[in-house]
Design goal:
Distance between the termini: 44 Å
Number of helices: 13
Number of strands: 24
CATH class of the largest domain: Alpha Beta
Oligomer: single chain
Shape: globular
CATH topology of the largest domain: BirA Bifunctional Protein, domain 2
Length: 474
C-alpha cells in the first residue's frame, strides 16, 4: 500500500455541527435515509431501506451469536390479555402507564382487554409452564426479535425514545439460582462481543434496588455516553431468581420427582443500538458506520471514462471484493460528479471508498480512502485482500475515539458542545444517600459501576461504598 498526498474536495456541509448534538442527530438520521419521521402517528417512524439494512445486519450479528450459544428463536403474538398481565404482581406496575390497550374488535367490546406487548414475560411464561416438565427440559434458552409497544409520553426521538420499538429479548430458565448466575455471566460475554463489533464502549451499571426491572432480583444495565453528555441505556440483563416462576407456576420435576420452581433470566436490547452508533461515531460530515454492520462496506466510485476496458476493470474489482464476502456497491450514476458522490457516501457512513480512474487502470491499482482518516492510499490489484485490514483499522479508530469520549466523561473532563455531563462518586447502597446527591448535582443515580468502578468510603455517610454513576439519561 502506498499513501498519497491528500487531495482536497469541496464538500457540502451539514446545517448543524455535532456540538449542537440534538439538532445534528435529527438532521443526520433524516438526510442519511435511516428513518422517516413523517409517519402520522406520534413516536412511530418508518424504517427506510438504508436504516433497515443497518438494523438487520445488527440483528443478524446478534442472531448468529445466540445460535452459536444454543438459544432457540421463537416468535410470540403481539397481544397479551389483561388477565395474563394481572398475574404479574409488581411487574405490571412498572408498565401500567406505558401500555397500549385494545378494547374493541370491530364494533364489539372485547370480553378481555388486550395490550400490545411492552415486553414478553406475561406472554411467554404461561407457555413455559406447558413446555417445562422435568430437569431434562432445562436449561431453556429462547430469544425473539420483534416490535414492542410503549406509550412514551415524553418527547419522542427516533431510535432513542419511540412508541414502536425494535426489540431483541432473551428469556432463559434454569434448575438453580447458580445456573441462572452462570447465564448472567454468559450475557456479559455476549454483550462484549456485540459491542466490540459495534465499536461501542459501555459502563456496566447495577441499577439500585428502587430502579431495578419490576420483578427482578437485580438488574444490570449497559450505559454508554453520548456526545451530548447524557447517558443512553443500550442493553440490560435481569436476574429473576424464581420470582416470576412462582407467579406463573413454572416448575420442573427433579430427579427424585419433587417439583421445584425454575430460576429465570432475561437479556434485552433495542434499536437504541442504532442511536448509539449514529451519535457516538458520527461527525460533522455525517455517519460513520462500523464495518461489521454497515449496509455497504465498500463503495466504488468511478472517475468517468468511456473506455470499455475501464468498465471491465471496475467489474473485476467488485467481483473480487464480493468473493471476499464484502458488501460492495458501484456508484455509476452519471448525473453526479465524483466529488458529489464522495460527499454523499461519507455522509452515509460507508467505511471505505475506492476510486477508480484511468490512472488506476494503467497502474493496475485502486485508490482507497478510509472514512475515519484523511488521506488516500494506493493499493495494487494483487493486494485487494488488504481491504480487510483497512476495515479493521476503521474499527480500531471508532473504538478508540468512542473510548476516549467515555473516559473523558468518567474522568470529568469537559467536552465541547456537551449539554450535560456525568458525575462519578463513591456511594453506599442507601437510597437516602443517593437522593441527597441527586438533589445536589441535579442528576439521576443510575447505579454502581461494575467495570470501571472502585471501592471506598461513601462520600455522604462514610460507610463502605463503590463508584456510582449520576447522569441525565435519555
Amino acid at each position: 500500500m502506498e499513501e498519497l498526498n491528500n487531495e482536497e474536495f469541496i464538500y457540502t456541509t451539514m446545517e448543524h455541527k455535532k456540538m449542537d448534538f440534538s439538532e445534528w442527530y435529527n438532521e443526520i438520521i433524516d438526510i442519511s435515509g435511516l428513518t422517516d419521521k413523517r409517519y402520522p402517528v406520534k413516536g412511530m417512524n418508518v424504517w427506510m431501506p438504508y436504516g433497515f439494512s443497518l438494523m438487520k445486519n445488527t440483528d443478524d450479528m446478534i442472531r448468529e451469536k445466540f445460535y452459536g450459544d444454543d438459544y432457540e428463536e421463537v416468535m410470540f403474538p403481539s397481544l397479551i390479555s389483561r388477565s395474563m398481565f394481572e398475574v404479574e404482581f409488581e411487574h405490571i406496575k412498572g408498565f401500567e402507564k406505558e401500555l397500549f390497550w385494545i378494547t374493541k374488535g370491530g364494533r364489539e367490546s372485547l370480553e378481555d382487554d388486550l395490550a400490545m406487548r411492552p415486553t414478553s414475560e406475561s406472554a411467554m411464561y404461561p407457555m413455559f409452564k406447558l413446555w417445562i416438565r422435568d430437569h431434562g427440559d432445562l436449561p431453556k434458552r429462547i430469544f425473539q426479535i420483534v416490535q414492542v409497544y410503549r406509550y412514551e409520553t415524553k418527547h419522542t426521538r427516533p431510535f432513542i425514545r419511540s412508541r414502536d420499538i425494535h426489540f431483541i429479548e432473551c428469556h432463559t430458565a434454569h434448575e438453580t439460582y447458580e445456573d441462572a448466575e452462570m447465564q448472567m455471566n454468559l450475557y456479559r460475554r455476549e454483550w462484549n462481543f456485540f459491542t466490540e463489533n459495534l465499536c461501542l464502549p459501555y459502563m456496566e451499571v447495577k441499577r439500585p434496588e428502587w430502579d431495578k426491572f419490576p420483578g427482578a432480583v437485580y438488574t444490570i444495565a449497559f450505559d454508554t455516553l453520548m456526545p451530548s453528555g447524557r447517558t443512553l441505556q443500550i442493553g440490560t440483563i435481569h436476574e429473576y431468581g424464581n420470582n416470576f416462576s412462582k407467579n406463573y407456576d413454572v416448575k420442573y420435576a427433579k430427579e427424585n420427582g419433587e417439583g421445584e420452581f425454575v430460576n429465570q433470566t432475561t437479556f434485552g436490547m433495542s434499536e437504541r443500538l442504532i442511536a448509539a452508533i449514529v451519535g457516538i461515531h458520527g461527525d460533522d460530515k455525517g455517519l460513520i458506520l462500523p464495518p461489521a454492520v454497515a449496509p455497504i462496506q465498500v463503495i466504488i466510485v468511478p472517475i468517468t471514462s468511456a473506455e470499455e476496458i475501464f468498465d471491465e476493470y471496475i467489474e473485476r474489482v467488485k467481483t473480487q471484493l464480493i468473493k471476499m464476502n464484502f458488501r460492495v456497491r458501484v456508484d455509476d450514476n452519471d448525473n453526479y460528479t465524483p466529488g458529489y458522490k464522495f460527499n454523499q457516501w461519507e455522509m452515509k457512513g460507508v467505511p471505505l471508498r475506492i476510486e477508480i480512474g484511468q490512472r488506476e487502470v494503467e497502474s493496475n491499482t485502486v485508490t482507497v480512502s478510509l472514512r475515519t482518516r484523511k488521506g488516500r492510499i494506493k493499493v495494487s490489484m494483487d493486494s485487494l485482500s488488504d481491504v480487510d485490514k483497512l476495515l479493521r483499522e476503521v474499527e480500531d479508530d471508532l473504538r478508540n475515539n468512542a473510548r476516549d469520549l467515555l473516559m473523558a466523561g468518567i474522568e470529568g473532563k469537559p467536552i465541547s458542545g456537551q449539554e450535560s455531563g456525568i458525575k462519578i462518586m463513591i456511594l453506599c447502597e442507601s437510597e437516602e444517600c443517593a437522593r441527597k446527591v441527586e438533589s445536589s448535582v441535579e442528576m439521576d443515580m443510575m447505579g454502581h459501576i461494575l467495570n470501571y468502578g472502585k471501592e471506598g468510603k461513601c462520600e455522604v455517610c462514610g460507610k463502605n461504598g463503590q463508584s456510582a454513576l449520576f447522569s441525565k439519561p435519555y
